[in-house]
Amino acid sequence: MENGLNSPLTVIGLMSGTSADGIDAALLQTDGEIITHFGLTYHKPYPDLLKTMILQAYGRVPGPEAALLEKIITEQHAQAVETLLERAQLQASDIDLIGFHGQTLFHQPPQMRGAKGQTHIIGDGVLLSSLTGITVVDQFRLNDIAEGGQGAPLVPIFHKALAKDLPKPLAFLNIGGVANVTWLGENDEDIIAFDTGPGNGLIDDWVRAYCSLPWDEEGKIAAKGTIHSDVLRRWLFHPYLSQKPPKALDRRQFRKCLEDVTEIPFEDAIATLTAFTVRAIEKALPFFPEKPKLWLVAGGGAHNRTLLNWMRERLEVEVKRVMDIGLDGDALEAQAFGFLAVRSLRNYPLTFPGTTGVLQPLSGGRICKFEKDQAA
């Protein structure tokens, strides 16, 4: 528990990404600037029906019908917290704060400078606080969106804390449903971040549609296929890939690519979609002041051997999984939202001109604390 104004807090970070596979929960201790200790992590898969409901709800602004889905998702997060505490042999009273990302259903960045985008992430922070007995920080993106930012990515400041003693320039790459990169230079202000393009989202969707598997495990399907260069070349002309950062994506923005693979063999489709993820990452290079000496890969894509091997071939530089340097690649984003929760509580900035395009460093997040007398 907190024992000083800027002392480390014991926090739980919660993350459910656009792949909708479940909830990552992670314990850590941090003062919002450095991480003093990484604790246990836990992954709670979503039940199949809930996963289907989430995937069906993607891509449109949620209405009143999403209230039940939000309640179920919040209850699932509470169960994840309970299990993590049991495994760590801790009580709710041992935890200062929960960072609750919630479940993204719709994200539309501003279409031009001076405009405002919109983001819709469901998850009830007050309900989660009441179920766990712990103060919750949620809705991390809203303030950035309100100030004209892209609303994403949020994790670069966490990457910066992780990279304190690593050689630079380097790039952190998270490959979830969408892939996002953080470029870090030698100086504190040298930070650039944006979504590169599709991550696992298109690959996962096509695998599920074709054979009911959840994903292409280790890239084995892609490795058997042949890349259709004509299709890939057409995709690489998508205007997003040449758009100057800051920029962010909704998971479904490249959905039309799946229409182009309906007539080609399944293995070839997966190979071509995997190559597209890699080539979109490669197209990020012109936006960096210097070429990274090292790429560190986290998220589900870090388990795709074919994707990583193709990255090494295209980038011609060292590509490692974050677990290769002692980090937990599967829990990294959950840890990030625990870190961001402390920054939010202490009014430290979460987003920056080089990450989301806001005019100045900006804090965010909503503090939710359930009081017993609220229920009276």
Give structural notes.
The structure is a single chain. This protein is of the alpha/beta class. It has 2 domains: 9-153 and 332-375, Nucleotidyltransferase, domain 5 (2-Layer Sandwich); 156-325, Nucleotidyltransferase, domain 5 (2-Layer Sandwich), CATH 3.30.420. It contains 12 helices and 12 strands. It has helices at residues 48-57, 66-88, 125-132, 142-146, 156-162, 201-211, 220-224, 229-235, 239-242, 266-282, 305-315, 332-345, and strands at residues 9-16, 22-30, 35-45, 97-108, 118-122, 136-138, 170-175, 178-184, 191-198, 294-298, 318-321, 366-368. The strands form 2 sheets. Strands 1, 2, 3, 4, 5, 6 and 12 form a 7-stranded mixed beta sheet that branches. A 5-stranded mixed beta sheet has the order 9-8-7-10-11, with helices on both faces. Helix 8 (229-235) crosses helix 10. The longest helix is centred in the first third of the chain and has 23 residues, at 66-88. The chain is globular, with a radius of gyration of 20 Å. The chain starts with 8 loop residues before the first strand and ends in an 8-residue tail after the last strand.
- Radius of gyration, in angstroms, nearest whole number: 20 Å
Count of beta strands: 12
First and last CA, distance: 28 Å
Domain count: 2
Order of helices and strands: EEEHHEEHEHHEEEHHHHHEHEHE
Q: How is the CATH topology of the largest domain named?
A: Nucleotidyltransferase, domain 5
Tell me the major beta sheet: 7 strands, mixed
Q: What's the overall average pLDDT, rounded?
A: 93
Shape: globular
What share of residues is helical? Answer: 25-40%
What is the CATH C level class of the largest domain, in words? Alpha Beta
Q: Architecture of the largest domain, according to CATH?
A: 2-Layer Sandwich
- Strand portion: 15-25%
Low-confidence stretches: none
Looking at CATH, the homologous superfamily of the largest domain is ATPase, nucleotide binding domain
- Counting helices, strands and paired strands, the structural category is alpha/beta
Number of helices: 12
